[in-house]
Design goal:
Helix content: under 10%
Number of strands: 11
Number of helices: 0
Order of helices and strands: EEEEEEEEEEE
Distance between the termini: 40 Å
Radius of gyration: 13 Å
Shape: globular
Length: 123
């Protein structure tokens, strides 16, 4: 059973930066995609950024040009560099890993989840 451990959340003012990390306890063939969802209070969980084992990246439109996802295969770790943060980026961020069977941005595509890390952006 793969375990995902996130770190790097926190509070920052608008325009600031944060870097999230997600370390997987082991390599698993089913974890073809790894990435991040976020969920704000009262809203559905939404896909943010994902990367495949071939280093192909996917971003939701609202973060393109501001967020960058990368991976270190030797460490089984994925990173999310978040720049130019906005108050609307405030949410709990969850790392996820899975095959992407139902689409990269679909919650149903992921069978491994982290506990979440809070990101708060103040105006």
């Amino acid at each position: 059973q793969v375990q995902l451990v996130e770190s790097g959340g926190g509070s920052v003012q608008a325009g600031g930066s944060l870097r999230l990390s997600c370390a997987a306890s082991e390599y698993d063939d089913s974890a073809y995609f790894m990435g991040w969802f976020r969920q704000a209070p009262g809203k559905e969980r939404e896909g943010v950024a994902f990367i495949s084992t071939l280093a192909i990246t996917y971003y939701t439109d609202s973060v393109k040009g501001r967020f960058t996802i990368s991976q270190d295969n030797a460490k089984n770790t994925v990173y999310l560099q978040m720049n130019s943060l906005k108050p609307e980026d405030t949410a709990m961020y969850y790392c996820a890993a899975g095959r992407g069977r139902y689409g990269v941005m679909n919650v149903r595509s992921y069978n491994y989840w982290g506990q979440g890390t809070q990101v708060t952006v103040s105006s």
